[in-house]
Amino acid sequence: MPSSNLSPLHLVHSNRAAPPPFSPGRGFDPVGDMLSLLAGRLAIRVQSVHAGDTLCCAGRPFGHLYVVNAGCFKTTSCAADGRHQVVALQFRGDWLGFDGIASGRYACDAVAMDVGEVWALRYEELMQACSCTPELMAGVHREMSLAIQRARDAMLSRCTLPATSRVAEFLAVWATSLAGRGQRAEQITLRLTRAEIGSHLGMTLESVSRSLASLVRGRLIRFTEQGRRVIYIPDLAALTAFGQSVTGDISSRAP
Amino acid sequence: MPSSNLSPLHLVHSNRAAPPPFSPGRGFDPVGDMLSLLAGRLAIRVQSVHAGDTLCCAGRPFGHLYVVNAGCFKTTSCAADGRHQVVALQFRGDWLGFDGIASGRYACDAVAMDVGEVWALRYEELMQACSCTPELMAGVHREMSLAIQRARDAMLSRCTLPATSRVAEFLAVWATSLAGRGQRAEQITLRLTRAEIGSHLGMTLESVSRSLASLVRGRLIRFTEQGRRVIYIPDLAALTAFGQSVTGDISSRAP
DNA sequence: CGCAGCATTGACGCCTGTCAATTTGAGTGG
DNA sequence: CCACTCAAATTGACAGGCGTCAATGCTGCG
Questions:
Q1: How confident is the model at residue B157 (pLDDT cuts 50, 70, 90)?
Q2: What are B189-198's pLDDT values in tens digits?
Q3: What are phi and psi for residue B38, nearest 5 degrees?
Q4: Chain D bases closer than 7 angstroms to a protein Cβ
């Protein structure tokens, strides 16, 4: 659905600038807590994005951090010699731009994969707000810590799992991410080409395709009639388990 | 050289608790700046370590961050199913324990590879000090950002480079790290077994051994008479360049 | 309708993992 | 000082997983 909020809202100071697109059934909502913590304590530029929009352009001077409030993003890294990679995916509640703090320049592109909305925060203002609000500082640190932890988990996966397990884990993590944000997890829409998935997982697009076919044969996933980018996961626990097996044996779940 | 400072010094409030083991020739010393920023603003437990000592035990409750003031550390991650990996190395000025902030428990072990010294900081006190000292908060954020950036660089390397290039890059990064801290970079002492290097780089110990042999044949490194763990690097720039080549061709530098 | 991008599938080859034998080196005790 | 022991490292042979190349199918769009 196209967003009607084209002109960015400046200087939002109400305690809740934008209603969350999804509200979990229970009262526990860490994303909303963080967003309401931000709102009212510093100037927030609410920014709508469309698929393909780039937020943190690699090489550009660092100045803002972004919190995803809706939609999903891919973060792509690029080496001097042209090697590049989709290094991470971000969903609602995730932060973009941490990589720019150290060097003063963004190191990655963050590209929207869908219509969405981010909250742009000036880093200097955020730091000031953190000084006044320990809770906010703790939240920012928690997010950076999470980013570190996820990167390490990813590295472990890339270095110790065979191709098919990596794909399974990738799908399982994506689905679990959505589930943790109150969205349905049994069906996910990949907004990446096979080549991008391969770059993220350290394999070729052909291997991604073959791995997916193998997972389909093993009844761990299914393609829907909505296209080859929509994947139905009948049993997330089984997929997760397979995604942690170092032997790519998919003998389980006979037809 | 063995450390004589066995009993930890508690509550150091002088503006420089321990003299840096190495002082760079020029006045520019970011590590020393950070350390003097810390000293005097919160309680610091100076802690001596020996090879094998573990600082952040994976699974233990999080409470402290550690700044390396001397020596070198390896950080090892371990999955539930037993897969494990050396995920990072740390030298003077690097921080340990960031991974514990988000979950409240350390996710990795940090093991000393040598005699060394760390400054242990209670996280809660650090946060308070950060509130009062924007410079300190900026420094902490810079370090976390660096950790994120390094993890992404590592992932790019693991996913896009052949085995020999990964080993070359590993050695080049290590040497460059030492050089940036004022130590000599032309000779490095690996304090890891081939198996540990392999786990860090996503390959087997045999491949590490073969890659090193290949680099020796290509005159990019040399073993010294001090053993096969000490590596002499005649031309760091050449090694770095080779560590970024996606073709493992080592035809350069004929004898 | 034809084109272009994306995805699938097969054939083939190479890089690297696996297995095994051997050598080197460090630590220990006689 | 030397023999002994064991972990670490090297090296070779072999095989398998995955990359490479190529052909084909599918889908959306001008």
A1: very high
A2: 999 999 999 9
A3: -70, -50
A4: 8-13, 17-22, 27-28
